[in-house]
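Quick entry between incubations.
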Amino acid sequence: MDNLLKSEWYKLRKDRSFWVLILFLLAFAVLYPLTLQSGEGVNGNDYYRGYILSINNEIVRLLPAILAGFFIASEYSMGTMKSIASSGNSRIRIYFAKLTVFSIGSIIILLILPIFMMGASAIYKGFNAMPEWTFYLQSIGLIAIYAAAFASIMALFSTLLTDSGKAIGFLLLFFSLIGGLLEYLSAKVAFLEPFITNSIFMSFETIITIDQIGHWNSDDVFTFVVVPLLTFLVFGFLGSFIFRKQEIK
Amino acid sequence: MNKYVLKSNRLSKKYHNNMALNKVNVSIKKGSIYGFIGQNGAGKSTLIRVVCGLAYPTTGTIELFGKNSEQELIEARKRIGTIIEGPALYPNMTAFENLEAHRLLKGIPGKECIEKNLTLVGLQNTGKKKAKNFSLGMKQRLGLAIALLGDPEFLILDEPINGLDPMGVVEIRELLKKLNQEYGITILISSHILSELHLLATHYGIIHEGELLEQLSATELNEKCQQYLHIKVDNPDKAATVIERRFTTQNFEVMPDGSIKLFAFVDVPGEISKVLTNEGLVIEQFMPMGEDLETYYTHLIGGVKRG
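Done. Structure below.
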């Protein structure tokens, strides 16, 4: 497993789409706060929620889709998946190594705005723009958990579609529409409502507004921590099962 | 000690209604260069993909280095190097980086093997040039360098000389011979260029429409492809006696249809025909014949089609 992780990490570091996304987000993180007129006198938590987390929420389910297409699905079209699968490593290990590194890549992408945009804002607007540390760290942790959960779903579809273009197109469409579709479903089918409300697609929206961790109850822990972790594991095992049975062309 | 690197036992693979492999029994001896011959869609790549663990057999089993359980096969694949349906490269990486990604994948310690393999295939001076800007021949050589990482005992090469210029073909042939003779690496090589295979292979497997028609050694093939004079006369028994008496040779065969295959004196057909005519025999057919790998293969699969 160690060699698989090292190889995947090496490939991620050399992945052009990964660096393009990072540079794009870094540029945005540094430049965007300069254009904001408001923010003066606004509470740090509200500034962080309103100007940083809300933007990050829009991209969280979309930008990693591009990475999924290039980092996972393109291995099939380039033919490199054949050499990986015939390298003498079990398919399950290969899949989880890929998923682990892809999840790390997604987490890195999704933490750029909260870290660098917050840092730039603090420099531009003074440190009163900073949120409370507990809330800040809590949001960073939650973004990382959700990024991994979304990555697990993206990895599964990329494995199924085996083509970077198809995978990116499908994932962008899927993650753009899934929220609305689930809302509609929960309104129509009553028994699905609790499942849908607690799903990562819906709960992720609320990590902007949730209370600080000190005020969490057990339901919050379940919804915001257990469900994303379970999603990561369930889709991870499902994906590895599909990959194990898959014939690689 | 296992004599065979690869054995398949009644291996079949069915895709929908198409029998890609039909009860194939391949056996590849350790130390051999096995030329795998077949048309497009004959089943060569399917067999290679099953051996490499990219596809699963419908029925039958394979044995790699004497191992045949699922877990053992995964381990055994660490001892093979592959180029399957073209070299598998990361286009935005350099030759060095491509090898590094595969070195890490195979868990090979130290980077010395990268320079060694690049030098071996003549790509040591490609510097920062990305693989996507390589010629097809360079890509093939890089694929070979990757396949050779980890000093595999068994190389599986699917069309490795495609796209190579004549010098490149010679270089790769010499390299493969060297790997086989000096390092004892067993090689399974599939190619459409049969004349090239003929210069390299020590054994052959001929596959057609999913069925392995024949496996034979190069010596056996040469015997089958031997040059001879095809002679048909009005009295074959008398002709046989004449040949035996006048040319003091028994290196001929009288075929069931009465024709004679004379394997000696192939280079003096005029003399043979003169002697036979002088003995009062009427020559109905007289021609030099023989086969190379290509004609042997064509006859073999042609025969199957007629059957």
